[in-house]
Design goal:
The protein has 954 residues and is mainly alpha-helical. It has 42 helices and 13 strands. A hairpin with a 5-residue loop joins β1 and β2. Residues 1-90 form the OmpR/PhoB-type domain. This is SARP family transcriptional regulator.
Length: 954
């Protein structure tokens, strides 16, 4: 069931529309629908539904409306009475508004234009006309309708932008011409129309569009077009190459089903056989999940290579339709040969992100994350597969808290503690029986081939120890050599003399290295070399580019070798361009590398792999933070394949996919003696890690960077890493620790005589002090930073710190001293072309003038800040400045302008999924007396990512 608000107010139950008669009844439903899952007090309901003029009988009438709505919904608990009011309780995405906002959020998060189009079309398809069409005239609901209209406009604009990225410019021209006619002052629509016309070969028409808009704005409003449009006109006049159309349009998929759920299960194993008893056991547990008040947990245990993952994934695919709210999967890597055991906090962030929770809304600390995870899954029916767990402690934070969910855990350990404390049901997985082993070979090789030589088949089974992994590899090689009879395969296994001590610990009663050895010997020389070099990769996943770097080959030459390894079952491919090794095979490959590759060749291959990750990370980091000056690094080793992300979204996507690999590389590099790569990789990744909320990873990488720099004796790298570590600590509210590391950095910079570095350390101390609310201390730190930046001859640092100094004076209540410093900073930053910090200085001045009572000047500066933040693409601070712009409008008595600014801010905060949206809703809903609250961030940090190094962020 769902409440539909994006048009007339109505209900759908079982896919059938059920109209709701009566203005007040519809208004009650709309108010509850705009607060799904939250209690709305009876007093507030009466106030909003009757517009502040509720009759004396309103309370009784409200109760009757609730009873009627429950009957229409067909469930008494669909609307629950909870003091002091009522709550709409019909599950996830109770309204079409929630569904639309989720799809818009998914579109914003995606770097794929086709996927953006798909999500945005799905969202816009939910609009059935003007939102809340039949409850007009009720003040608060009218405001909500305007907000929803604005969200629709912005989604439509984003859809056009995505279609332009797909090369659909010619198809868009008629639509954009209609929009431009309907919105004669909308600069964004005219910009899109100019681009579409130019890319369609209509340069003259594109320029004429600009001139018409310029005349309209001048004659009607007395203003000129904004800078982006002026720059676009200049680019069209000089036929700038950046305006060229993209590649030919890609066929866009139809709009998706509006209900999207996580579907994280990896590919099922083809031709899965046997395990009948274990599957029946899991089916029985699934049946119990519908009649128990607890989460059902199955603990699947068995030796390495026995097929635990294959069973869990096969069964999960078999029953996934019974879990309509999603399927979650994570490989916890509990027995990873490289020691890359997944922290439960990392797994929790992945699960929460799969349900659309923004990274900056995920709390720090595994306990808080686990609590949020349980809240998200409450009332849902979700299947959770926790693969390759080390112990119960790694699993417990990942367990849902409410019935309806089923968890399957696989582990080499029996997880007795989980069985005892959490009442998990043990499912022991033993070696295959002889019949099951024969069935497996028959499925893969054909019944006739296996039946032709029963004795040879028995020998293959015995030499593979009835271990599914060994049997699969033997069968794969047999399958790729159809001319070989099974007897020939048995003979080759019999004659293999390879041994591998590390595999003897698998407790399977035999040495399965012979199976691996025979498969390895059947490879072409190039694939065999790549396989053993993969033993040097720390995991968890290998891309074609990283494999090519290990081998010193071009990526195009490496892909056929990877495909050969996949066909031989020596490598798995869970996704496009993502490959993994079973940990037994990883151990085998590593032993081959040690035995067949000399130490110099292994070191050279490791250097190429590190250079691939380092130089790609540096390129991606520069796209995320273009103002950051690069650090000096050694040129890449010959043969290293370097990635070059095409834009910011692609850079973020690369970091997201490779984050675990980068951390594994940083962890493994000390053993190879590559300390420079460690701190440089940590430096390159820190903007991504801090901005996308990977706080624990940021701490771990900077800790490794400090250790590496100390081993090298590199004082500059140590100081930089201490500063980076301080940022990570501050993000986790570990302020004393942050100050301690900044003092270390300060001591190092003083020993080096590096004035700019000392200035940065003081600047950072000011940022941390403001986070603690110690504004007087921040003021002292800013003064020291300013003096040192002037001594260092660092104009950018001077300008930025002047703004910080002014902001600190403002936070201390001394607005007269704050104003001239921020005005000096604004002028200097404008001359330096530092647009992000110019926006920050203008925002600071808006705050200062507001408190000086000069609301007109405050509005001017806030408007300028909004424009600049929009130009540089900083959506959060654009919304933050809009919020304060609304405060200044309200203080000046212009309520309509205030509400317009707040609505715009709310739309952005909702798009970002940010908690500040609640504050804006409060201002729009209750119109409280406005007092401009000191923002939670300080100007010192607001426009300077604390992760930036001294050379770029003073």
């Amino acid at each position: 069931m769902q409440v539909r608000l994006l048009g007339p107010v109505e209900l759908t139950v079982g896919g059938v529309c059920r109209p709701v008669p009566g203005l007040r009844r519809k208004a009650v439903l709309a108010v509850l629908g705009l607060h799904p899952g939250h209690i709305v007090s009876s007093d507030r309901l009466i106030d909003l539904v009757w517009g502040g003029n509720g009759p004396s009988t309103a309370q009784n009438t409200l109760q009757r409306h609730m009873s009627y709505l429950r009957n229409v919904l067909g469930a008494k608990d669909a609307i629950v009475a909870r003091p002091p009011g009522y709550v709409l309780n019909i599950g996830a995405e109770a309204t079409d508004v929630e569904t639309a906002e989720r799809l818009i959020r998914l579109a914003r998060q995606s770097s794929d234009p086709a996927l953006k189009v798909r999500h945005l079309r799905g969202a816009l398809a939910l609009w059935r006309g003007r939102p809340l069409l039949d409850v007009v005239g009720l003040g608060w609901l009218d405001e909500q309708a305007e907000r929803l209209v604005q969200i629709g406009h912005e989604a439509a604009s984003a859809l056009i932008e995505a279609r332009l990225m797909l090369g659909e410019h010619a198809d868009l021209v008629p639509e954009l011409e209609r929009l431009a006619s309907a919105r004669p002052f909308d600069e964004d629509v005219h910009r899109q129309l100019m681009v579409a016309l130019y890319r369609s070969g209509r340069q003259v028409d594109a320029l004429a569009t600009y001139q018409r808009l310029r005349r309209s704005l001048g004659e009607e409003l007395g203003i000129d077009p904004g800078q982006p449009l002026r720059e676009l006109e200049s680019a069209i006049l000089r036929q700038d190459a950046s305006l060229a159309p993209p590649a030919p349009a890609i066929t866009v998929l139809p709009a998706p089903d509006v209900r999207v759920v996580p579907a994280q299960l990896p590919l099922a194993v083809p031709a899965f056989t046997a395990r009948t008893r274990e599957i029946a056991r899991l089916d029985t547990l699934l049946a119990r999940s519908g009649s128990t008040s607890a989460v059902v947990i199955a603990a699947v245990s068995g030796t390495a290579g026995v097929g635990k993952t294959a069973l869990a994934v096969h069964w999960a695919h078999r029953v996934r339709d019974q879990f309509p709210d999603g399927q979650l999967y994570v490989n916890l890597r509990g027995f990873d040969p490289g020691g890359l055991v997944v922290d439960p906090a990392v797994a929790l962030r992945g699960f929460l992100s799969a349900f659309g929770i923004e990274m900056d809304r995920i709390p720090a600390g595994v306990d808080a994350q686990a609590a949020l995870y349980r809240s998200v899954l409450a009332g849902k029916r979700v299947l959770v597969v926790l693969d390759n767990a080390r112990d119960a402690e790694q699993v417990r934070p990942l367990l849902p808290g409410s019935p309806g969910c089923v968890v399957v855990v696989t582990s080499r350990n029996q997880l007795t503690a989980l069985v005892t404390a959490e009442c998990a049901y043990p499912v022991m997985l033993d070696l295959l029986t002889g019949d099951e082993s024969r069935d497996l070979l028959a499925h893969r090789l054909g019944t006739d081939r296996v039946a032709a030589d029963p004795a040879a088949t028995r020998e293959v089974i015995e030499r593979c120890a009835r271990l599914p992994l060994a049997l699969a590899i033997a069968a794969a090689n047999c399958f790729t050599h159809p001319e070989l009879p099974v007897a020939s395969i048995a003979a080759q296994l019999r004659d293999s003399t390879s041994t591998l001590d590390a595999l003897n610990d698998a407790d399977v009663g035999t040495d399965i290295a012979a199976v691996f050895s025979w498969s390895y010997q059947a490879l072409t020389p190039g694939a065999a070399r790549l396989f053993r070099l993969l033993g040097l990769h720390p995991g968890p996943e290998v891309t074609a580019a990283s494999a090519a770097s290990l081998a010193g080959l071009a990526a195009a030459a490496t892909r056929p070798l990877l495909a050969e390894l996949v066909r031989a079952h020596l490598l798995m491919q869970p996704a496009r361009d993502r490959h993994t090794l079973h940990d037994l095979l990883w151990t085998y490959a590593a032993s081959l590398a040690r035995g067949e590759e000399s130490e110099p060749r292994r070191a050279t291959a490791a250097r190429r792999l590190l250079d691939h990750h380092l130089h790609t990370a540096l390129s991606a980091g520069q796209l995320i933070n273009p103002k950051r000056e690069p650090i000096a690094v050694s040129p890449p080793a010959p043969g290293a394949v370097l990635g070059q992300p095409a834009g910011r979204d692609e850079a973020v996507a690369w970091f997201t996919a490779e984050r675990a690999v980068l951390l594994a590389v940083i962890r493994q590099a000390p053993a190879s003696g590559f300390d420079s790569h460690i701190w440089q990789l940590a430096w390159a990744a820190q903007d991504f890690l801090t901005r996308w909320g990977h706080r624990e990873d940021h701490v771990a990488s900077q800790r490794a960077a400090i250790d590496a720099a100390q081993r090298q004796g590199d004082l500059v790298a140590q100081a930089r890493s201490h500063c980076g570590y301080s940022t990570a600590c501050a993000k986790l509210h570990r302020y004393d620790e942050a100050h301690s590391h900044l003092r270390h950095a300060l001591d190092l910079y003083e020993a080096l005589g590096n004035h700019a570095g000392q200035a940065f350390a003081y600047y950072q101390m000011g940022w941390v002090s403001n986070l603690q609310g110690r504004h007087d201390r921040a003021l002292g730190h800013a003064r020291r930073a300013l003096r040192l930046y002037r001594l260092a001859g660092h104009p950018v640092g001077v300008a930025r710190t002047l703004n910080s100094l002014g902001w600190d004076h403002a936070l201390c209540g001394d607005y007269e001293r704050a104003r001239p410093r921020c005005e000096q900073a604004l002028a200097a930053l404008r001359l330096l072309g530092d647009r992000h910090f110019e926006a920050g200085a203008s925002d600071s001045l808006g705050y200062i003038y507001h408190h000086l009572g000069n609301y007109g000047r405050a509005v001017e500066h806030y408007r300028h800040a909004v424009e600049l933040f929009r130009d540089v693409g900083d959506r959060y601070y654009e919304a933050d400045a809009l919020n304060h712009l609304g405060d200044s409008h309200r203080a000046a008595g212009d309520v309509d302008a205030a509400r317009a600014a707040w609505r715009h801010a709310l739309a952005i905060f909702d798009e970002l999924g940010h908690q500040d949206a609640a504050t804006i809703r409060g201002k729009l809903g209750t119109r409280p007396p406005v007092t401009l609250v000191v923002p939670s961030r300080s100007s010192t940090a607001a426009w300077s990512s604390p992760a930036l190094p001294v050379s770029t962020r003073p």
